[in-house]
């Protein structure tokens, strides 16, 4: 149930303290540079915990600010790719430079032979092979074999998936794909992602940094995850405002429709007027 999943805060949020990791609550990044700083820090904390396979969902630079990769981008997946690819490159440069102390050599290889699917992989090669990083840009489920191959080749070196082209939330096909037997097989065949998620989990991928936007009762709400903290919700039109909600991992399962419905039914008393 939506209402039982979220912990509400009436007063300004206290620091979200996780010993040895993060001492203050994160806030939605106001610009590209701050988002890269937050994302790199989340990857660094995950690596310190032994996590080397990272999934990130970033907002993309547009104009003077950041926008979610949604249907408002009239150029579709290729316009998103044009914004996401250099963002991934700069994130790898930041990660590799922070580790090795010198700028890495960066090379991009397109994965979509047709040139219209908006997929690539960036390789950051440092002076020491153990400091190399690899970043997949907008991979589709069809790239699972490539992901397996890169996981095998990377070993303990970090492998990032940035803005993968499958949904965050669930739809009926996803629910069906989690069932056993013929129904589960049918759900996966129709686009459910349970089998994909199971495979990625087996490969060691962890969600380390995610930004999502929902519009609730006229206010723009940012759901944010930054490893190892749980999900938080803040108003994007006033990111300095107190935290609206904090959750256990259950919040990751709440789609925009469910969250908006919960607000409308006053299951969540978020003060967003």
Description:
- Keywords: Signal.
- With 273 residues, this protein is of the alpha+beta class.
- It has a domain at 31-167 and 204-257.
- It has helices at 2-5, 32-48, 76-100, 144-154, 172-177, 181-189, 194-202, 256-264; strands at residues 6-8, 53-57, 60-62, 65-67, 105-110, 120-125, 133-137, 159-162, 205-216, 219-226, 232-235, 245-247.
- The longest helix is centred in the first third of the chain and has 25 residues, at 76-100.
- The two termini are 24 Å apart.
| Radius of gyration from the alpha-carbon trace, in angstroms | 19 Å
- The succession of helices and strands, N to C, reads HEHEEEHEEEHEHHHEEEEH
Unreliable sequence segments: 1-21, 170-179, 182-192, 254-273
- Helix content estimate: 25-40%
**Distance N to C terminus:** 24 Å
Q: Approximately what portion of the residues adopt beta-strand conformation?
A: 15-25%
Largest sheet: 10 strands, mixed
Q: What would the principal axes of the Cα set say about the shape? A: globular
Structural class: alpha+beta
The number of helical segments is 8
Mean pLDDT: 77
Q: What is the number of E strands?
A: 12
Strand order of the main beta sheet, please? Answer: 1-12-11-10-9-2-8-7-6-5
Protein name: DUF1995 domain-containing protein
Keywords: Signal
InterPro entries: Chloroplast_ADK, DUF1995
Domain DUF1995: 29-238
């Amino acid at each position: 149930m939506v209402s039982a999943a979220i912990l509400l805060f009436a007063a300004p949020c206290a620091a979200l303290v996780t010993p040895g990791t993060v001492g203050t609550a994160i806030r939605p990044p106001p610009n590209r540079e701050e988002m890269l700083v937050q994302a790199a820090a989340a990857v660094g904390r995950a690596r310190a915990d032994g996590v080397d396979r990272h999934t990130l969902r970033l907002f993309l630079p547009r104009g003077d600010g950041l926008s979610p990769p949604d249907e408002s981008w009239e150029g579709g997946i290729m316009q998103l790719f044009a914004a996401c690819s250099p963002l991934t490159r700069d994130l790898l440069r930041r990660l590799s430079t922070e580790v090795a102390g010198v700028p890495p050599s960066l090379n991009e290889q397109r994965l979509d032979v047709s040139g219209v699917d908006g997929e690539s992989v960036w390789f950051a090669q440092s002076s020491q092979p153990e400091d190399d990083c690899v970043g997949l840009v907008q991979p589709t489920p069809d790239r699972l074999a490539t992901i397996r191959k890169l996981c095998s080749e990377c070993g303990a070196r970090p492998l990032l998936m940035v803005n993968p082209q499958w949904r965050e939330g669930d739809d009926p096909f996803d629910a069906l794909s989690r069932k056993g037997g013929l129904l589960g097989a049918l759900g996966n065949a129709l686009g459910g992602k349970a089998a994909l998620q199971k495979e990625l989990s087996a490969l060691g991928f962890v969600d380390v940094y995610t930004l999502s936007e929902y519009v609730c009762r006229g206010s723009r709400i940012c759901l944010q995850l930054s490893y190892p903290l749980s999900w938080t919700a803040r108003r994007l039109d006033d990111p300095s405002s107190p935290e609206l909600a904090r959750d256990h991992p259950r919040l990751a399962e709440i789609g925009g429709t469910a969250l908006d419905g919960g607000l409308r039914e006053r299951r969540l008393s978020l003060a967003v007027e």
